[in-house]
Design brief:
0% of the residues lie in helices and 59% in strands. It has strands at residues 2-7, 10-13, 18-26, 31-39, 46-52, 57-59, 67-71, 77-82, 91-99, 102-105, 109-114. The strands form two sheets. Strands 2, 4, 5, 6, 9, 10 and 11 form a seven-stranded mixed sheet that branches. A hairpin with a 4-residue loop joins strand 5 (46-52) and strand 6. The N and C termini lie far apart (40 Å).
Length: 115
Amino acid sequence: QVQLVESGGGLVQAGGSLRLSCVASGSIGSINAMGWYRQAPGKQRELVATITTEGRTNFADSVKRRFTIFRGSAKNTVYLQMNNLKPEDTAVYYCNAQAYGWSYWGQGTQVTVSS
């Protein structure tokens, strides 16, 4: 079992920045990838960015060159640095961890970008 706790969401003006954090606990040695997804009202949950234990990253086209994903030195923490935020980035952001074929989710953190 893996537990995930996100933090760092909030309200920001367009063009601003936020950094989201996700801390994993439990069977962290089994994690082979972590990432962020988001869900806007009335829309499906979508991938934002992922990072594997080897450091390979993947980004949604809509956030490339604006968002960065990286892991902390403790390896059980993943960050999402979001720059040049746009109103369309408004959503609940969820941390995800993949471990032994299972998918774990955090509770989500709200990001609201005002125009």
